[in-house]
Amino acid sequence: MSVKAHTFTIANGATDSNIVDLDNRSLIGFRFPTMTGTSLTIKESDGTPVSLGDESAAITISNPSGRSVRFYPLFGMRRVQLVSGGAEAAERTIQALTDDYTG
After folding, report:
1. Phi and psi at residue 37, in whole multiples of 5°?
2. Cβ atoms within 10 Å, residue 22
3. Beta carbons of 95 and 30 less than 8 angstroms apart
């Protein structure tokens, strides 16, 4: 198990983070700073970012502010973007944790 941190940034007044290449690693969690938005959606991008999930619901983390969240690995993630449910009142730096675990 080789855990690695990747950094996402949401600019002041924005909702979308930069797109980060997770190099096909498994996404296993996040460390969130204080946030203005009350939810966060995970998108994967191969050009245009698309919400992860199925047709009826995107993968969303509720009330992420100041939390660390760990979950069952999302395998083989490549280019990922995070979207806050509201415009952030300051620049936010979010850490995503990945592992080389492949299932």
Report:
1. -65, 145
2. 18
3. yes
Are 90 and 12 in contact, with CB atoms under 8 Å apart? yes
pTM of the model: 0.86
Domain regions of the chain by residue span: 4-99
pLDDT in tens, 35-50: 999 999 888 877 666 6
Say how far apart CA 82 and CA 18 lie, in whole Å.
8
Which residues are CB-contacts of 47 (< 8 A; sequence separation ≥ 6)? Answer: none
Q: Which residues of 28-37 are buried (b: 16+ CB within 10 A; e: fewer)?
A: bbbbbbebbb
Q: Is the pLDDT of residue 101 over 80?
A: no
Regarding the domain delimited by 4-99, which CATH topology (the fold level of the hierarchy) does it fall under? Jelly Rolls (2.60.120)
Structure tokens at 72: 């069952």
